[in-house]
Write the structure tokens for this entry.
Amino acid sequence: MRIQRTIGISLAAICTATAAVAQTPSIVNGNVQQRAVTSTLSAEFGALVKAQTAPAWIGYAVPAVNAENEECCNYENGSTRFCGQCRLEDGNQGFNMSSDKRTTHLEAPDLLVLFRAENGSVEKIRTFSEDCELDAGGRTVYWLTGVNPAESVALLASLVTGSGQGLESADDRDHITDGAVAAIALHAAPEADAGLRGFVAASQSEKLRERAAFWMAAARGKTGFDTLKSLAHEDDDDHFREKLMFDLSISKQPEAIDTLIESAHHDPSDSVRSQAIFWLGQKAGKKAEGAITEAIERDPATEVKKKAVFALSQLPKDEGVPLLIQTARSNPNPVVRKDAMFWLGQSHDPRALEFFEQVLGR
């Protein structure tokens, strides 16, 4: 029993030490000052920001949303891409979501959230994976430990909405908003989903709605997709629904292509149907092919038909070229036939040349 107890205590100590190490990232070329959050994140963060006259960084770690992507500065060595050293003071945001990683994580690495503060305001927000080494550019980095993910989402949301008074610079508001929305989306916390749903509400600005919708598709999985699906069916803003078609095209949810097809068939806006067809053209497979050819045959708007013809040209050649030939040969709309001929010419496919020779009677 004594041996088992000793082993248990030792394992607990190792786990505690490992958790403490994980709280602090690898930071070089900087003065790192670690601080535990003992009250609320908002209060401690706000006090630190207001105290900064010279540029400094404030950061912390929270659980990341999944293990499929790394948020880091990617460097290439020959054909190998890896997560390298990231310069905080670099003017380039340096943010990348990449599934081409040198390591495989059993669990998602923590998300590092860093804020650049100067003259009592936040100037920039950046996010990285915990296994990225950070070059602080000679600046002080205040590293906060024990951060609650829900409080982190609330802090970032306050920077988006402007309720974090005195923390943000008006000149950099767009950059701060973009950085905060991205950081929220990468949190492994249900509060992140609620926050993003608030940002896509019809009462918000168009740019904020579009940014939040993108991150719902890119990072929030099934929960984010479900929200986007509802918006694609119910939102009154044609322009916003048009932007949603791209978001649906990058969603990894299998149902996303079905929602694109529904929009291509039934959305009341010509521009939305056109965009749905365009992004279907980037997808291979019988579902996408069927939706595109149906639009060419049945959609009442010529502009939508033209977009569908272009979409055929984006399919793999073995799928797209025969359908373009069929369209050029038999579609009753002369504008559609002309477009099909044009894209066949751009394909440089031997089957297209053979078709042209037939048309010219050679």
Remarks:
- The chain has a mean pLDDT of 84.
